[in-house]
Amino acid sequence: MGEDHQAKFDPKHTFNYCYQFVKLRRAEGQQSPLTLSCASLARPSTGRYRGQRLIEVGTGPTIHTLISASQYYDEIVVSDYVDSNRREIERWLNAEEGCFDWSAHIQYICDLEGARTPQIITDTLRQKVKQVLKCDICLENPFHPVTVPPADCVISSLCLEAACKDRESYRRSLSSMVGLLKPGGVLVLVGDLEESYYMVGEQRFACVNLSQEFIRTTLSELGLDVEEFTLQQAEDRNIHLKCDYTASFHLIAIKRCQQPAN
């Protein structure tokens, strides 16, 4: 499925459909799955999740999940399978002309935090992102041949359900992701439930159908304890038919210090 994304995934369609929409939503005072994921690390309670290294798996062409996390971790590693997605991130990190404008998302986090300014957040995030890596979550080491030291936090948003063909491959990929965590580290996962497809522009991509029960059971079997599992029900899918999920989820899970035997 990765080759399909490499050949057909266009970051500009993602920006136009998903992320420009947030500006309108924010102006109207509405919530969306994207503002849910933006806010997931901005709540005061998440200040206890902090450390040296944060890894994001399947960053896509975006930085929205890292905006608030940048104040809690000293070093950030971002990654994606698709070359054009990594290039878009590098364009923003280097403040290149024509890079996507994340100011509405950054201002949203500023309003939630009530502390940092947009310029401080922008400068901090650009300084703390140390690596932009090729990532294949289907591998035991997703960053092969690069080895990244275990992280205090791993984030992934809307990645695994798109990268995996079935629940068994999802479980294997999630196991690889958990392997990137230190014992006691925190996993932050954002995704969709009961989704079979999504569209980027005119391109249709398949997804593995997930349930809350399956995700909770899989995480427990992989040696994690779920601390939070938040749902946001989908809007009327008949409006645009760009995807068919029933709910978005955000979860926080902690990797046990004593891991289950394989």
UniProtKB/TrEMBL annotation:
Database matches in InterPro entries: NNMT_TEMT_trans, SAM-dep_methyltransferase, SAM-dependent_MTases_sf
Binding residues for S-adenosyl-L-methionine: 19, 80, 85
GO BP annotations listed: methylation
Position of the signal peptide: none
An annotated Gene Ontology molecular function: S-adenosylmethionine-dependent methyltransferase activity
Name of one Pfam family that matches: NNMT_PNMT_TEMT
Alphabetically ordered keywords of this record: Methyltransferase, S-adenosyl-L-methionine, Transferase
Entry similarity comment: Belongs to the class I-like SAM-binding methyltransferase superfamily. NNMT/PNMT/TEMT family.
NCBIfam families assigned to the protein according to its UniProt record, in alphabetical order: GntF_guanitoxin
Name of the molecule in the record: Nicotinamide N-methyltransferase
The species this protein was found in: Umbra pygmaea (Eastern mudminnow)
